[in-house]
Design goal:
The chain has helices spanning about 1-10, 15-30, 40-50, 60-65, 100-115, 120, 125-135, 140-160, 165-185, 190-210, 215-220, 225-235, 245-255, 260-290, 300-310, 315-335, 340-355, 360-375, 380-385, 385-400, 405-425, 430-440, 450-465, 470, 475-500, 515-530, 535-540, 545-550. It has about 550 residues and is mainly α. The two termini are about 35 Å apart.
């Protein structure tokens, strides 16, 4: 630690950058125990953010015209050059100086200090809200992006330290959301705008979790309405960062995608940047819908319409994939009232399952299909789509060459379909047995564990059904649960081993079934083992290791 601190003292920006990066990782492991090192690290972070950029202006007036007027603590000739205010909508200089990476690393470190050692960081919070806020308007997009993410973490830290109705935390929330709005209005870099949107989504989630009047404050300040307007502008291609995008796409179409390798690489990069800003909307828009509440759902109808236009077959597959991913999360946030959208979206979604070339699009559409099917108002309404939807999903499950993530989403979609409306589809002898058979063959999930609650929770519902068409699958459902339980017990043992081998904290694992889903499976097996002889008999025949793993699910933490 002391050797790393020594890197801050050398007059070498790259070493200071690496030192910020190292301590950003260390605080994640130490948590509040990092307090002893925090004052020195924060002092060095402040020094990095205050460093002179070496950008000179002809006069103070020129500096004011180029910048946003954030001069507190900065020399006029080293200010952030172009916050986008004087240059007009969407105009911003991108000047990469030797300290950009150092400033970006300092922003990331501050974000981690606030997130992983919030108690120790809180006394310095206001100081860094001002500093990091200025970095949101810095002259290079790399720094701006990291600053937006840091502002989101500062807002969360403030909310935890002084929950609403305390005004101190709400002022930080306001500063973070104002920074995102400036980015949406003025920033011409799509990646920076996308990151700002993702940061705003995190802020909204933090405010929603804190409650206590924070939601009303954000709505009254106009942030929800204005951020929703920015999302719609992006979906309709009107955002500042999208200026020129239509001309570039038209040029690519006119040239048939041809040209030399350099032109094709430029077009690929442009398409990727276009997707990046849409991915920012994919994070922010569902958060806005959830945050605004049921009374405001009607105000998002233009957004739904714009998303559906983005799913048209004449759009590139990348755009369609992001559009479906965003659409389904918006629909989930709206809930039952979104049932009116199903006839407009589900047929196209089902078509993509068999015609889409990219695995990402098939994966998103499989997930979307399951969610939309659940929203059908009645079993009769849902049955209209089953003749095309069920075979398309089953084909994905049967394809040995299909991507695992696609199969996982298709399996969870099938479970959603089988269990909707009191398991009507599962009880139907024409569709239930065949679809359930193929679904169980595709389980357990191997990649997309976010779908564990839907997939395994649905199997719990099927195990509780008293119907001959479904009961015949009870042994296979229990065996699937046993396999999941055994695999997760093995992962838990590895996590404990990894934690014991490290100085502090457990290793970071993401490939595991959430504890809530595991406990639900354990409770279901225990309940049905007592209620049904066939389930009890299946349990008795399982290997001892699997029996023990199943019985241990109720104690999973």
């Amino acid at each position: 630690m002391h050797a790393a601190m020594a890197g801050f003292e050398l007059d070498y920006g790259e070493l200071r950058e690496y030192a910020h990066g190292m301590f950003a990782e260390v605080v994640e492991a130490y948590g509040e125990e990092f307090e002893a090192y925090l004052p020195a690290c924060l002092a060095k972070a402040a020094e990095s953010l205050d460093l002179d950029d070496g950008v000179l202006y002809d006069s103070d007036e020129d500096a004011a015209d180029r910048g946003r007027g954030y001069n507190d603590g900065f020399e006029s000739d080293s200010d952030d050059s172009d916050g986008g205010g004087g240059g007009g909508r969407g105009e911003r200089y991108s000047v990469f100086s030797g300290i950009c990476e150092e400033k970006a690393a300092a922003c990331k470190a501050i974000a981690n200090y606030a997130h992983h050692a919030p108690r120790a960081f809180t006394p310095r919070l206001n100081e860094f809200v001002d500093r990091v806020g200025r970095m949101c308007d810095y002259m290079h997009e790399m720094v701006r992006a990291q600053a937006h993410l840091a502002m989101a973490r500062l807002a969360r830290c403030a909310l935890e330290a002084a929950p609403p109705p305390a005004t101190e935390s709400l002022a930080v929330v306001d500063a973070a959301l104002c920074a995102t709005q400036r980015a949406c209005l003025e920033d011409d870099d799509r990646e920076a705008v996308a990151t700002a949107m993702e940061a705003a989504a995190e802020v909204l989630k933090s405010v929603g979790a804190a409650a206590g009047g924070g939601v009303a404050f954000v709505i009254e300040k106009g942030h929800v309405a204005e951020l929703a307007a920015h999302c719609l502008a992006v979906l309709e291609g009107r955002a500042a960062c999208q200026e020129g995008e239509h001309d570039e796409l038209e040029h690519a179409t006119r040239n048939g995608g041809g040209g030399d390798d350099e032109e094709e690489e430029d077009e690929d990069e442009e398409a990727e940047l276009g997707l990046i800003v849409l991915e920012g909307v994919a994070e922010l828009l569902p958060a806005l819908v959830t945050f605004a509440g049921a009374a405001s759902h009607a105000s998002f109808q233009p957004h739904v319409a714009a998303l559906l236009r983005r799913t048209s077959v004449n759009r590139p597959e990348g755009q369609r994939s992001v559009a479906y991913a965003t659409f389904v999360e918006v629909v989930r946030a709206i809930g039952a009232p979104a049932a009116v959208i199903v006839p407009m979206a589900l047929p196209g979604c089902a078509r993509e399952l068999s015609s889409a070339e990219s695995g990402g699009l098939r994966r998103n559409c499989a997930y979307c299909a399951g969610v939309l099917a659940e929203l059908c108002g009645s079993a009769a309404e849902a049955s209209k789509y089953l003749p095309t939807l069920a075979p398309a999903l089953a084909a994905l499950l049967d394809d040995e060459d299909e991507e695992q993530g696609v199969k996982d989403n298709a399996a969870s979609a099938c479970v959603r379909i089988l269990t909707m409306h009191q398991c009507a589809a599962a009880k139907d002898p024409a569709t239930g047995p065949a679809l359930l058979d193929r679904t169980l063959r595709a389980l357990p999930l191997r990649e997309d564990f976010e779908e564990a609650a839907a997939a395994y929770g649905g199997l719990c519902a099927l195990l509780r059904v008293d119907d001959p068409e479904v009961n015949v699958f009870a042994p296979r459902i229990v065996q699937t649960f046993a396999l999941v339980a055994t695999e997760e017990a093995g992962k838990a043992a590895k996590r404990l081993s990894a934690a014991a081998a490290t100085a502090r904290g457990a290793a970071r694992f993401v490939d595991f079934v959430p504890a809530d889903a595991l406990r639900a499976m354990g409770a279901c097996v225990t309940e049905m083992s007592s209620a049904r002889a066939d389930v009890h008999a299946v349990l008795a025949r399982l290997p001892h290791e699997q029996q023990a793993a199943l019985m241990g699910l109720s104690n999973v933490q």
